[in-house]
Please model this.
Amino acid sequence: MAFLKEALTSLWQGLGLATWLKITTSQPPCTYYFGPFINQAEAERHKHAYIQDLEKEGAVGITVSFERGHTPKSLTEEDS
Model:
């Protein structure tokens, strides 16, 4: 089953249909991308673990959104 999920995720990513979890923080001022996921429901199931990790690192002002498309140019962007 894991192989099928990975294959489908790879296909979706190649077609630009994959979902990415976009998490921004005000401190530090950064944008993080996690994924790819098959759909928003799958990303939703994983978001709490990523948020928890960022909070443990001291991040505050966390907002979450979902984006569909190809792999972001950078998975971590420092905002100014």
Summary: The chain has one domain: 2-70. The CA atoms of residues 25 and 70 lie 22 Å apart. The beta strands are 19-25, 30-37, 63-68, 76-78. The first strand starts at residue 19 and ends at 25.
